Amino acid sequence: MEFEKRDWPNLQNKVLSAILIDDLKEAKRLLQGNDEALIGISELLEKTTGKPTPLKNLTAQPPREIHTAVSYTCGIGCKMCGSGFHDKTSLFEDYKQLSPQQFDEVMPWIDAAELVVYVGQGETLDNPHIYDFVKKSAGKHSNLTTSGVPLTREKMKRLIQASLKDINFSFDGLTLAGHGSGNIKYSQTIWKQIDMVQSVKKELGSEFPQVMITMVLNKENVDQMEEMIDSAKERGVFLLQLDVMVPHNPELYEQSIFTDFKYYQKKINEEIKKGNEKGLWVRIGDDTEIKDSQPCHFIDKMLIFNLDRYLPSVCCGPITMPLKIQGYSTDTYWNSFPFRYFRFMHGTGKSETLPVACDTCWAMNPLKFADQMQPKDNDFKARPLYLEASELKNQNKWDEAEKNYKTIIQNSDNPVWRGKAYFHLAEREILEKNYPKAYTLFQETVKNYFGHQLAFTYLYLLMMLLEKKQEDSFSLERMQCSSAVSGS
Ligand SMILES: C[S@@+](CC[C@H](N)C(=O)[O-])C[C@H]1O[C@@H](n2cnc3c(N)ncnc32)[C@H](O)[C@@H]1O
Ligand code: SF4
Q1: Which of 70, 71, 74 best tests ligand 2's pocket when mutated (most atoms within 8 Å of CB)?
Q2: Predicted TM-score (pTM) above 0.85
């Protein structure tokens, strides 16, 4: 499995990465004799010598939660599966599980964290090394999420011996899109598995792992919440964690709560309240109600190691950082410029500064998300226009290329295409040394397409050059985890 090596750094990547971790000396050294390769960057590097580091105060303590995927296989076949197992049992021919060596690479992050979550990407218990992994994180709070199907008494004993703290059954009741596809026998089996866990704990005299359930809600199972709450309470489950089914195709959208969000929001909130009154801990996200909009509760809190172990995610959404971990310390990576800028974007509290992916994420803005999911008639295709613009640009026909980029920005529903188009407009301003205009356009680039490394590097240098003090509009109170920000 060569996935991780695919994007291993070339000179450009090394230079840009050095800048994004504030090592401008190293970037200059790498560019010596090679400055033609990145002429715009070289020029800006010279102009910014001695200027203050951008957003240097927006650093934070390492993430409290580390999530790590351990397997790339699953045989359950949930229709809703966001990991891609709805129509397959394996993601790759030659890569099935996380190896002990790969796990060890995450250990510095685990050492700095409080909670380690073993989840997926396929079925967590498919990895035969899982017991050793859990054992290695024994000093931390650990959580293992599983469908529950492959669990046996023997496996449960090994997990208890490895000091697992929480076991989380993904179980949605009876729904076609969820675990067990609405089969009553599947449902009965999972309740028996939960009973089995409690019985093994008793046998070994262990109070851990605590048992929790994650129920993913859609139209079909919302009315089963009360039954789920009663059955869970009866079996000593300590937490019913609710989640909302995120649809990834039109069929799932029709089954999701987003077709009539306000109606389902009311129902869900009423059931959560009733469940908590009955004495079971019931929550959605980390709250007891689903709101119209709220700050993101993931910010500065977690890092998720999924497929590309050198490119972890800050949440389960589509934000990708424009920087790979390349032998950096946890502190260097976590406080590199893209993370500081991400904090700034969330800290302003303004929808206009948020990454588009966050502003329309269901966890922050379910109403906007629901609106965005509505089927639309827009049949605009960005790709052919974009390719044509690249051709025009290569022929130095900038004015014509620019028209195409502007058409993409005005008409495309896809923020990634809009971000790419903004990037080219910004690049032109760099060539013409129109730096304030370039700065605004690079801001738009990363807002739409957060993973754009070159745009981020320009943004870094332009912030220095123009001495932009973005911290002025940053509010600690608005940050979800303000206590994690240094200096607070
Ligand atoms: C992908 S699974 C991997 C771990 C394991 N196979 C399991 O099901 O627990 C991780 C979590 O994602 C949830 N999930 C899967 N598809 C989803 C979707 N479309 N929307 C929301 N949650 C989803 C599952 O319910 C599960 O709790
Ligand atoms: S059990 Fe988990 S990984 Fe497997 S298909 Fe269902 S949600 Fe996906």
Answers
A1: 74
A2: yes
